TrEMBL record:
This is Coproporphyrin III ferrochelatase. Belongs to the ferrochelatase family. It comes from Branchiibius hedensis. Pathway: Porphyrin-containing compound metabolism; protoheme biosynthesis. It comes from the Bacteria. Its main location: cytoplasm. Fe-coproporphyrin III binds at residues 63, 132.
Amino acid sequence: MPTSQPAAASVAPYDAVVLVSFGGPEGPEEVMPFLRRVTGGRGIPDERLAEVAHHYDRFGGKSPINDQCRELRAALEADLRRRGIDVPVLWGNRNSEPFLTDTLRDAYDAGARRVLAVTTSAYSCYSSCRQYRENIADALQTLQDEGRELTVDKVRQYATHPSFARVNARLVTDAVRQIGQPDDDKLRIVFVTHSIPEAMDDTSGPGDGEGNLYEHQHDEIAHVILDEAGFTLDRELTGALVYCSRSGPPTQPWLEPDVNDHLRSLAADGITDVVVAPIGFISDHMEVKFDLDVEARETADELGLNMVRVPTVGVDPEFVIGLVDLMTERAAQARNVPVEMVAWPGEAMPPVCRPGCCPNLREARPAACGMD
Ligand SMILES: CC1=C(CCC(=O)O)c2cc3nc(cc4[nH]c(cc5[nH]c(cc1n2)c(C)c5CCC(=O)O)c(CCC(=O)O)c4C)C(CCC(=O)O)=C3C
Ligand SMILES: [Fe+2]
């Protein structure tokens, strides 16, 4: 268990916490407006939009993501209360109601002036970090124009907080036990994350010119999961990182291989059993429910591969405790109280993003919670 720090059982100076997420439709009539909002001006072909709309239609036009945010919000609140921290825990989205701007307006009207944000995105790249910081900056600008002045800080990206890899390792361990294939040579672990344009991966990271931090963080987590699950089970586990949910024009290179292509090559190599672990996501939303539970499972069935899909961290208490530890850590930093930033695997991401990190390659826009 990550150590929760009773001495730091406070989120002062913050007077509210906000969970910031992607959003999703909750009924058939919300699907197209949602998709237009998501892709606004980003050159996603119409055929791709129609195809994605169909993914949602299969689930009655409702994405599970908002209910999962409601659950996570409640779980964060429960752990804060357990620690005796009586701060309001709010929730706001980028692409669907409740919109972040409205959430922060309500927070202001209820008296909040300094708010601490945590997003539903663990890794570092434009889509998973800076774009949320732009959303926060947009919301703060709108509210400032209305005469409502508030500030927002953010907990650091948490792919490298130990609770995240540890919970994922436990979930993979359980899935390997469940699949019951004792021959290490017949079994593969398939780690899956959201594909992004190669250019976005190349520029992901703290802006020191290194880049490829998105892929690197996933690689490191996949590696420690194999190591830890293998140690727990006393087995030689093998796996690879692959991608789902590619969009954008076919001419634009995105991270590969696609999960379905990977399953085909595993089957061709004589693999019979696959444990599919969506380490790129924190809840079983549409990219998991459709791309893995429908599409990848169909591929596995066609190939005669036995597949177990690992759950995402969701509201696993150890994960929730980790996020609340990150809140008290960020609050201590805001109070100038020294605090150890535990990290595994790799390094702790900075709580205040560095200039030029994970840049917006289309247009420079204001972003909150950073130096630029
Ligand atoms: C890195 C990353 C995450 C993980 C970090 C995070 O969690 O933020 C993520 C999450 C999600 N992506 C989601 C949905 C979509 N993403 C799209 C499009 C895109 N994603 C991208 C990247 C990511 N996306 C990119 C580079 C694009 C193309 C350009 C653009 O448009 O920015 C599109 C457009 C249509 C299409 O798929 O082509 C949709 C509908 C949902 C909601 C699921 C639900 O409803 O349950 C979630 C959680
Ligand atoms: Fe996406």
